Amino acid sequence: MRAVQVHASKHYDVLIGSGLLKQLGEFTARVTQAGKAAIVTDSNIAPLYLESAAQSLKNAGFSVAAYVFPAGEASKNGETYLSLLSFLAKNQLTRADCIVALGGGVAGDLAGFAASTYLRGISYVQVPTTLLSAVDSSVGGKTAIDLPEGKNLAGSFYQPSLVLCDTDLLDSLPEAVFRDGCAEVIKYAVLFDAELFSYLQETGLSFHREAVIARCVELKRDVVAKDEFDRGQRQLLNLGHTVGHAVEALSAFTISHGSAVAIGMAIVSRASCRAGLCSAQTRDAVCSLLHRFSLPAAVTFSPALLSSAALSDKKRSGGTIQLIVPQAIGQCRLLPMPVENLEAFITLGV
Ligand code: GLY
Q1: What share of the chain is helix, strand, coil (3-state, %, to 5)?
Q2: How far is 243 from 334, CA to CA, in rounded Å?
Q3: Is 187 in the pocket of ligand 1 (CB under 6 A)?
């Protein structure tokens, strides 16, 4: 097992290793005095892991309630959120109790947002079951639900008390879902770590799960420690996401988050190269690593559509949108861009 300590407004451990779900109760009892734990999970994960999670919590002395919602991004909405709050109230969870988010990004974001607002905040534990949530969404305290007007438009910064990542859970993922998470792993390598980038070039999908997840979490931990509230350097973690969110929205979410981020990274890398911000070698390295992981690097939406969808994203601030551009492998920077220039920039990369 590896442990990464996160030092933000709350200090907590991210534990990563094989077989950890069986110890969920024991580790949760170390970080909370709670008598009750409400597990929040979805209809795909519940048949696989709810019983083990609940049993482990019961063995450690918790009484357990479980809230199961229909799997999918469509559930990350105001209605599910309010119904979850009612569930917590009906089950008489107090401020001393806790929530356990068992699942991928949707479960983590939804449960985290409920934890941050129910009784003005109760503690929660993240148990990621996808690679994407293990390396990104479960760490760093961003919680959110979607609004009809866009993704993640209501949310909070609210750190968990513990993140427990059982790498065995990733083995049950369909390959496409696992590959989706690889886009976020590649993102960390392009942003911060040329050595990780070279390692991924060698291994492709068969990288060492525990070591790579721990490395990505360390990289994210360092960013969150410096900029927990996303005012500056944390925005680097949005590499590929400005165009990626546009791709997701334009496809009505039929293109997955990881694939959309991969397309976003490729478009930004090609555009950056043509704009003289990075070398052709950097551009080709990014695109060939995406190819190595069978991730897409292009899409048929026009630059005009991509640009207007990107501009409705929350990363826009007044007349400027923050792009993240590669300078070299392991080194990226924020590029504030006047909104009227975005379409021309995307045109360079499609
Ligand atoms: N997923 C990006 C962040 O946590 O800032």
Answers
A1: 55, 20, 25
A2: 14
A3: no
Whether pTM > 0.85 for this model: the answer is: yes
**CA separation for the pair 101, 164 (Å, rounded):** 10
Regions in the chain scoring below 50 on pLDDT: none
Best mutation site among 217, 220, 221, 228 for ligand 1, i.e. most ligand atoms within 8 A of its Cβ?
220
Comparing C-alpha atoms, which of 2, 11, 1 is closest to residue 221?
11
Residue with CA closest to ligand 1 atom 2: 237
Evaluate: CB of 36 within 6 angstroms of ligand 1: no
Look at residues 2, 6, 314, 23 and name the one whose alpha carbon lies nearest to residue 159. 6
pLDDT in tens, 172-221: 899 999 999 999 999 999 999 999 999 999 999 999 999 999 999 999 99
Tens-digit pLDDT profile for residues 61-88: 999 999 999 999 999 999 999 999 999 9
**DSSP readout, 123-181?**
EEEEEE-SHHIIIIITSS-EEEEEETTEEEEEEEE---SEEEEEGGGGGGS-HHHHHHH
HEC profile of 22-56: HHHHHHHHHHCCCCEEEEEEECCCHHHHHHHHHHH
* CB distance 102 to 39 below 8 Å: yes
Asked if residue 315 lies in contact with residue 235, where contact means CB atoms within 8 angstroms, the answer is yes
Closest Cα partner for 163 from 179, 146, 140, 180? 140
| CB of residue 17 inside a 6 A radius of ligand 1 | no
Distance, CA of 199 to CA of 189 (rounded, Å): 10
Query: In angstroms, rounded to a whole number, what is the distance separating the alpha carbons of residues 24 and 21?
Result: 5
Instruction: Please tell me the predicted confidence (pLDDT) of residue 151.
Output: 85
Contact 281, 326 (CB under 8 A): no
| Rounded CA separation 25/331 (Å) | 40
